[in-house]
Specification:
Blueprint lengths: L1 H7 L6 H8 L3 H7 L4 H18 L12 H13 L4 H20 L28 H9 L6 H16 L3 H5 L6 E4 L2 E7 L5 E5 L2 H14 L33 H15 L2 H4 L5 H14 L4 H8 L4 H5 L16
Antiparallel strand pairs: 1-2, 2-3
Helix pairs in contact: 4-6, 7-8, 8-10, 8-13
């Protein structure tokens, strides 16, 4: 009976396709399972670095890697004067792969284990935060009566008040601004597809509301909250249907954060100012206003509270921005 059932069933895969998938190396499966695009891109670069150094051509050759290979690579990374955080990330990427290979019984041990890594600076991260005057200038920089200006002010406020990653901001939908027990929250999809809810600051909501009223898509609940304001490939301006798409994270940095930071002179004396600087500003502001660090950890979507401490700039920047309502 079982044989007859198999014979009668329409198979989605041919026998050749089934066999081909069964033979996919676990190294390839591990990489395919990294769902975050940014992490996947970084790990691809890191693994190509290692493969180029030791001469790996085929994924199966990872199975003959020894600790000596890893140490030699680590020493080469040190000679290149890479930042300690970069070296740690590269070793972590390789270690993550070997952990998966161990679970898949493709190798007997992880050769990265026991290899010394640069020590982390557990006191404070290197990303600069903004001070009072810089925050004021940044929020005032976009034109208040153009669609792009209203959108950009809402974007900057969302980043400054809530500390979102730029990828998280880009994937926000209109319906993600929602009430929970009477309080407005942002429903944020973070790393690892983890959902968190962040209380919305009234000043930020006012700018978001003004932008939605001006652009006219407040009723498009399943559509992107923040959208392009022009389409370089078609005509029709910001009202064109083709603009119902997500912003690109690189555009948030280049066309919003960096553009206005350059415009008001922040980048002249604050080296390394970027989207993450607004995240550090939001975290420090919350801590300076007596928020519990565990709550800030939850808002930022950090898995470990030690990561949240890296965003605390109160010691080195006593006049860090108090983002007022």
């Amino acid at each position: 009976m079982t044989t007859d059932l198999i014979t009668r069933t329409n198979r989605a895969l041919t026998a050749q396709e089934f066999q081909g998938l069964a033979e996919v190396p676990p190294e390839t499966v591990w990489f395919a399972n990294i769902r975050n695009a940014r992490t996947r891109r970084a790990y691809r670069i890191d693994l190509k670095d290692f493969m180029g150094f030791v001469g790996i051509v085929r994924p199966v050759e990872f199975r003959i890697v020894t600790r000596a290979h890893v140490i030699a690579w680590r020493n080469d990374l040190d000679r290149r004067d890479l930042a300690p955080s970069t070296v740690r990330r590269k070793l972590s990427a390789l270690s993550s792969l070997f952990d998966y290979l161990c679970e898949s019984n493709a190798v007997t041990h992880n050769p990265v284990r026991g290899v010394e890594r640069p020590k982390a600076n557990n006191n404070e991260g290197l990303t600069p935060a903004a001070d009072n005057e810089q925050v004021r200038l940044l929020l005032a920089a976009p034109h208040p009566r153009t669609i792009k200006g209203q959108r950009d002010r809402a974007i900057l406020a969302t980043l400054l008040y809530h500390g979102l990653r730029r990828e998280e901001l880009c994937t926000l939908k209109v319906k993600d601004v929602q009430r929970r027990e009477g309080v407005l929250h942002l429903r944020v999809e973070g790393k690892g597809d983890k959902i968190r809810y962040v209380p919305v600051a009234p000043a930020a909501y006012r700018l978001i509301d003004e932008y939605l009223a001006a652009v006219g898509h407040a009723g498009d609940l399943d559509g992107p909250l923040f959208r392009p304001v022009k389409n370089n490939y078609t005509t029709g301006g910001w009202q064109a249907g083709e603009l119902r798409k997500l912003l690109h994270p690189q555009s948030v940095y280049r066309d919003v954060v960096k553009r206005y930071a350059d415009q008001v002179g922040i980048t002249v004396d604050t080296h390394g100012f970027c989207v993450h600087s607004l995240r550090a500003t939001a975290a420090t502001n919350a801590l300076e206003n007596d928020s519990d660090i565990a709550k800030v950890q939850q808002w930022l979507g950090h898995a470990n509270i030690s990561t949240t401490r890296l965003y605390d700039k109160r010691k080195t920047a006593p006049k860090i921005a108090r983002v007022s309502e």
